[in-house]
Amino acid sequence: MNLVSNTLIVQSENREPIVNTNLKTILISIISIVIVSLLLLRNPFFKSTYLLKSFGELSVDPEIALTNNKPTFLEFYAEWCEVCKEMAPQVSAFKDEYEKDINFVFLNVDNQKWGNYIQKFTVNGIPQVNLFDKKGNLISTFIGKQDEIKIRESINNLEKEEKTYEAIINDEFSSIQENKNNEVTPRSHG
Asked: Which domain holds residue 121?
């Protein structure tokens, strides 16, 4: 019996290094796959955050942009905003395409130094894009996720002609017909 138990002990001792070697190989393989995946997928996860940070760093000063006789694209954003991150590649493409003809200004709503602009342009949600004509007149405002075509058309209109903000609002909404049946008189309660 001693011989059998010694043989079993020797066999089990011999198996431990094999199991440990296999376990180490599996762990190293898993860790390698995770690292390679992160490196390959890093671009989609971190590119948008990087773009938002670079927007703020490379932005034209708003005072200069609104007075230098060029149309202006002004975006209010936050680095934590998922919609801002989602739209960042699209906005970056606009910046690359139109940068020679249009000022691009990016103001982080978490930076207190932009508080006066946040109040002035009534920022109620982000991202908020305000488009201004050459004279610094507000032409249109987009809040939240926007279709690329809609923003592109508005940018192209900035370069073609100047409309007042009211003219664009009136073009986008239907007119309300006057209803003579509900006229308010001094004796009515409403």
From this structure: 52-172
Residue 28 counted as domain residue: no
List the beta bridge partners of residue 130.
74, 141
Our answer to whether residue 67 is catalytic in this structure is no
CATH number at residue 66: 3.40.30.10
Cα distances (angstroms) measured from residue 29 to each of 15, 38, 48: 21, 14, 30
Residue 75 domain-assigned (yes or no): yes
pLDDT in tens, 136-189: 999 999 999 988 899 999 999 887 755 554 333 333 333 333 344 444 334 434
pTM of the model: 0.60
Catalytic member of 81, 88, 105, 107 = 81
185 inside domain: no
Considering 65, 74, 84, 129, which one is annotated as catalytic? 84
How many structural domains are present in the chain?
A: 1
Within-domain flag for 40: no
Cα(158)–Cα(134) distance, integer angstroms: 8
The CB density around residue 13, as the number of other CB atoms within 10 Å, is 9
To the query of whether residue 84 is one of the catalytic residues in this protein, the response is yes
